[in-house]
Every structure is written in structure tokens, then in C-alpha cells.
Amino acid sequence: MLRAQLLTSKAKISNVLYRGKQVASDAAYVTKRLLKSTGNAAWIAGTTFLILVVPLIIQMDREQQMNELELQQASLLGAPPVSPSK
């Protein structure tokens, strides 16, 4: 009878350990997939930023420089100073 209880006890512990390993494995898999998805999302966001936003920033800077140049040329030619539009 004692031997049967020991075997039952070991079987329960073995089942608990197996379930614990399975949960840990599942958690590792989910974490790995989450990190991969996060990396993909970061790559997409970065690429989109480079393709869409950086050229816009460059163009806005060029336009601002052109406006400042026009104001400077107008002041050199004696035109009344005009405040830059914002």
C-alpha cells in the first residue's frame, strides 16, 4: 500500500513537472513570437518614416530657406520689410 502511494505521489509530481515545463515552453514561444512581431512592426514604422516623413522634412526646410532668401533679397533691394508668414 505504501508503495502504491509513493508511485501515485511520484506520478502526480511528474505530471506537475511536465505541466510546468509545458507552460514554460509555451511562454517562451509566445515571448519569441511577440519579439519577432515587435521587430517587424518597428522595421515597418522606421521604413515608412524614412520614405514618407524625411523627404517632407527636407522639403519644408528648403521652402523655409527660400522664404528667408526672398526676404533678404527684398530688404537689400529696398522693399519694405514683410513679416514672414507662419
UniProtKB/TrEMBL annotation:
Q: Which domain of life is it from?
A: Eukaryota
Entry's localization field = Mitochondrion outer membrane
UniProt keyword terms in alphabetical order:
Membrane, Mitochondrion, Mitochondrion outer membrane, Protein transport, Receptor, Translocation, Transmembrane, Transmembrane helix, Transport
Q: Does the keyword Protein transport apply?
A: yes
Q: Enumerate the InterPro entries for this protein.
A: Tom22, Tom22_pln
Predominant place of localization: mitochondrion
Pfam family of the protein (one) = Tom22
What does the entry give for GO biological process?
intracellular protein transport
Sections of the chain in a coiled coil: none
CDD domains from the xrefs? TOM22
| UniProt family annotation | Belongs to the Tom22 family.
- Name assigned to this protein: Uncharacterized protein
- Please report the organism this UniProt entry assigns to the protein: Stephania yunnanensis
